[in-house]
Amino acid sequence: MVKLGINEKSLPFAMTWREKLQLAKNQGFDFIEMSVDETDERLGRLDWTRQQRWDLVQDMYAVDLPIDTMMLSGLRKFPLGSEEGDIAEKSYLICQKAIILARDLGIRNIQIAGYDEYYGEKNDLTRELFIENLQRVVDFAAENQIMIAIETMDDPFINSVAKVQEIKQSVRSPWLQAYPDLGNISAWPENVPGQDLADGLDSIVAIHVKDTYKVTETTPGKFKNVPFGRGEVNFLGLFKTLKRIGYQGTLTIEMWSEHDADAIEQVIEAQQFVQDLLAQAGFYK
């Protein structure tokens, strides 16, 4: 049976970690995904003291709910493929700190977005720099027994599990794997999402669950804040694919409702939507 988690950005921002963990536990989730985004506050988590880390570990033990994964989206601001050497080095240091934080908190898996550049220009050099610096990150992660997983993105650079596997041909390590986003792989017209998941099963360690609108010749698609069931992702078909191929990793519901007054209601609705379809796909028997 797969584990179903919730990303931190779905939960009310003002809650303490103990309150977020308790809410997720009460709702029946199996884990929370921590966010280390571009904000100074969340990047500051990478410099937490030993006491701050221990306090969160105690909260997890008290509630009996782990933080299994970390979303390191702060790398959009400091991309591994940056042509500016100081930014690329900052990116590597952020990854180092994230790996140590994950080790200290018992987090198993760090999600890295599949961007060589996010705000800057992309070219052959940024791709090569991304691969070079990713190798350094994965080597450090291997030393600390932490998984690095590349997420399939809202960007053509890495928008399928197949493209993660191409990167893995250059960065060869069991500590580098794929973190497909069902919404993102479904949005790109060149992808056959079910086949992408089936072909890439050996690389998949975690999956994001969100809805999206497709990219077309006339529209850019929509990759965030599409309510579940109103987008174009065929969740039942993809869940049936995952059941058939024997996927046993985690599924994480991903939303950005942390500043919404009805964040808890949105979480409950999304969880029910996903669990109903997982049951139809045969995951709950």
UniProtKB/TrEMBL annotation:
Gene3D superfamilies: Divalent-metal-dependent TIM barrel enzymes. GO terms for molecular function: L-ribulose-5-phosphate 3-epimerase activity. Keywords: Isomerase. Residues 21-274 form the Xylose isomerase-like TIM barrel domain. InterPro entries: L-Ru-5P_3-Epase (IPR004560), Sugar_Epim/Isomerase (IPR050417), Xyl_isomerase-like_sf (IPR036237), Xyl_isomerase-like_TIM-brl (IPR013022). This is L-ribulose-5-phosphate 3-epimerase. It comes from Convivina praedatoris.
